[in-house]
Structure formats: structure tokens, C-alpha cells
Amino acid sequence: MTMSELPSRAPVLFLSHGAPPLVDSTLWVDQLRALAGRLPRPRAILVVSAHWEAAPLTIGSTDSRTPLTYDFRGFDERFYRTTYDSPGAPDLAARIEALMPDGTPVAHDARRRLDHGAYVPLTVMYPDAQIPVLQVSLPTLEPEALLALGRRLAPLRDEGVLVIGSGFTTHGLPYLTDRRPDAAAPTWSAEFDAWAHECFAAGDVESLIDFRRRAPGMPYAHPTIEHFAPLFVALGAGDDPEQRPDEAIDGFWMGLAKRSVVLT
């Protein structure tokens, strides 16, 4: 199926975005480019990243002149010179605010645009930076509330907006003993990833919601849970959270599971 034959309704993604050096992984870059090539080109992109927690729901800058948020440290200087000057998306910001329930507060932060959970994968997927991009915060880490947020955002898909939940399927950085890109996955990472795959295959959203108690490898796979939380926004924005998603990317990087899924 060619891009022109794909339906205009945009899909939803959960991406394991990784650290900035993931762009040096030929395999990850090839996988992400192939994924983007299978998608209809979106009219705009909305990203909910693990790296921005703020309540109430906060809408980031719609001005492309606002600097990127280099929310990391200890990497090569070249990663702090990355740019991604995509157009702002003020109309999308207004639509998101309108989609929220009456009386629900929505904040704006004109100083914050895109963090690396947003721009790192987008530099690979849409390197021309011509598509308007907007980032909003994670207003909570509770899965049920994030599913509800995703359901609120779902109508944007009919307007050609690609909704991306950007996190990581496992993110136990404090427990990694081998941080080489090709390091073998620790047991806790491999077991959590296999469990997530089984949940996706079975449409077992109930277990995913209760991952802190049910998933093997916890709490090592997610000593803090913000990197799994964007999945629930993506599931909520999908047509049916219990549908079997397309597990478009799998495998490990630095021992962490980079499983990423597409929901329609």
C-alpha cells in the first residue's frame, strides 16, 4: 500500500525514543525511517514525552524560535547543537484546549518547546522539519487518567494529527552494568519486554495498567514510571485500547527494550 492509498485518519504511536546517541544506531535509524515511510504524512504532530511532567495539562510553545529543551547531560557537545525548527502549531494548541472537559484547567508554557523525547525521533522520521509539531505535558502518571486523556485527544486523528507517546519500554538506567549500545539485555529488561509483547498480542490493557504489580522485572525495568506512562495516552487515542497493535520496532539498545507500537 502506498502512502497515497493510506486512509487520511492518522495512526497513533508509542515510541521508545532513547537517549540522543540513539541516532548513531544504524539499526534504530533504519527501523524508525521504515516506520515513518509506512505512515500517511501527518498534517501536524502532537507529542507527549516522558521528559515533561506538569499538572495541569500544559501546552508548550507554538513559536518555532523557542529553543529546544536539551534535557540531558554528559553527552558529546554535538548533541547540544541539534536543531529541529519545525513550524509551531497554534491551531492545534487551541483544538487541544477545546477538547478538554469544561472546567478543566489547561496551562501554557511559552518557554518550553520540544525536549529530546520529541525531537530526537522526529529528526529521523521527518528530517525536513516541515510538519508543525506541538508538545504537551504528562499531567499525571496514573494509567487510567492518561487513557482518558488519550480518548480526549483521539478526534485530532481525523484532522490528520499524528499523536505520539514517547517513552521507553524499559528504562532501568540505575541497574545497567553494561552501557554499551550492543549490550545484552539484563534479565529484568528481557522479561518485562516479553511480558509487554504478550500483553499487546492479547489486548490485555488491564495488565498493562497494573504493570507495577503484574509485570516481571519490576521495579528494575521502571524504577520510576514516567517512561512507560506515555503508552497509555497512545492506547487511549487508539480506536480500541484492546486491539492488537503493530509492534513495529523491537530489540534492545544498551540493554533497554525499544519496543514501539502503532495503533490505528
UniProtKB/TrEMBL annotation:
Its cofactor is Zn(2+). The keyword Ion transport does not apply. GO terms for molecular function: ferrous iron binding; oxidoreductase activity, acting on single donors with incorporation of molecular oxygen, incorporation of two atoms of oxygen; zinc ion binding. Transmembrane segments: none annotated. Keywords: Dioxygenase, Metal-binding, Oxidoreductase, Zinc. It comes from the Bacteria. SUPFAM superfamilies: LigB-like. Coiled coil: none annotated. Signal peptide: none annotated. Residues 38-241 form the Extradiol ring-cleavage dioxygenase class III enzyme subunit B domain. This is Putative aromatic ring-opening dioxygenase. It comes from Gordonia polyisoprenivorans (strain DSM 44266 / VH2).
